[in-house]
Amino acid sequence: MRASSRVPSLRPRGVSEPPPPPPPNSGAMELAGPPPQGPPGRKRLPNRDRPAAEDDALHQIARQAEARLAAKRAARAEAREIRMKELERQQKEKQTKP
């Protein structure tokens, strides 16, 4: 008799074997460990190759833009005050007239 090279299974007939586990680092994301902190992605390092003059120019542009915004804010606040005083004056006139 010829010896069978097949090892008899201990599973009952008709039950298939489970699929083999995936190989390590197969691209599947493991959920082990705590989630990463902070925003996702790579942290940008400051560009040290940029000349200081360019940085100074950009800072100056930003300061000028901030000054323009502050001036607009101040103008709006002043206009609001003028309108409020005018409304108060009109209300006083209405109240004093019989």
* Helix and strand pattern: H
Determine the structural class based on helices, strands and strand pairing: mainly alpha
- The percent range for helix content is 40-55%
Question: What's the average pLDDT?
Answer: 79
Strand elements, count:
0
**Termini separation (Å)?**
128 Å
Strand content: under 5%
> Which spans of ≥5 residues are poorly predicted at pLDDT below 50?
none
The radius of gyration computed from the alpha-carbon positions, rounded to a whole number of angstroms, is 39 Å
Quick one: overall form? elongated
Strand count, sense and barrel status of the largest sheet are:
none
Number of helices: 1
Task: Walk me through the structure.
By secondary structure, this protein is mainly alpha-helical. The protein has a domain at 51-98. Helices cover 46% and strands 0% of the residues. The protein contains one helix and no strands. The protein has one helix spanning 52-96. The longest helix has 45 residues, at 52-96. The chain is elongated, with a radius of gyration of 39 Å.
